[in-house]
Specification:
Blueprint (H helix, E strand, L loop, with lengths): L11 E8 L10 H18 L2 E7 L3 E8 L4 H19 L12 E4 L3 H19 L6 H10 L5 H4 L12 H4 L9 H14 L1
Antiparallel strand pairs: 1-3, 1-4, 2-3
């Protein structure tokens, strides 16, 4: 059976997921994560992608992005191929790294993209913390997790040049000087909900 054709158009916003085959690791070391982020940055620049946010987990990746040139498949092909070649060489392996095609869901509504951004940024908390952990322990996990764009959103680290923060922060109410703190409250409210 043929794979369904991906819907691509100028200005489309997607929630993209990459998964490793059979729950194996995409990233074995911090050097792997750093290489993926560098490859992501280069690919964003090369294909004129507007990357809103990302989160790297051990065996999967979340990206939320916009494609002004309707080129999601070309962008993802370059990102996955470049990283797989690196990973295979570094870890002396061969073959596919990812499980099948990347997942890509169209994001149509502004209120959904805001909820999606919270879900993606809270992913480390949901994956690493079981329900027995207190809200303060979960908050500590979120604030210490460096492999996502969240810390840049809330001003805990330098903003990454390849992330477009404005569309998500622009959905917060109020003057520009308080948008980071409003976004932080919005995301962190998901820890206790």
């Amino acid at each position: 059976m043929a794979r369904p054709i991906r819907i691509e158009y100028e200005g489309a916003v997607y929630h993209v997921t990459l998964r490793r085959k059979v729950c194996r690791l995409i990233f074995k070391t911090d050097a792997d994560r750093e290489r993926f982020i560098r490859t992501l940055s280069e690919s964003v620049d090369r294909f004129d992608i507007r990357l809103y946010l990302y989160c790297l987990m051990h065996n999967h990746v979340h990206l939320v992005l916009e494609t002004p040139r309707a080129n999601l498949s070309r962008f993802m092909h370059r990102l996955q191929t470049a990283y797989t070649v690196y990973f295979n060489r570094r870890h002396r392996r061969c073959g596919h790294l990812m499980q099948g095609r990347f997942g890509a869901s169209l994001v149509d509504e502004d209120h959904y993209i805001l909820k999606l951004s919270r879900y993606v940024h809270l992913n480390p908390v949901f994956v690493r913390a079981n329900k027995s952990k207190s809200p303060s322990e979960r908050m500590a996990i979120l604030h210490s997790y460096i492999w996502s764009s969240y810390r840049g959103y809330i001003g805990k680290c330098k903003r990454e040049d390849f992330i477009d923060y404005d569309p998500i922060l622009g959905m917060m109410d109020g003057p520009k000087r308080i948008l980071k703190s409003q976004y932080r409250r919005f995301v962190e409210s998901g820890i206790v909900d």
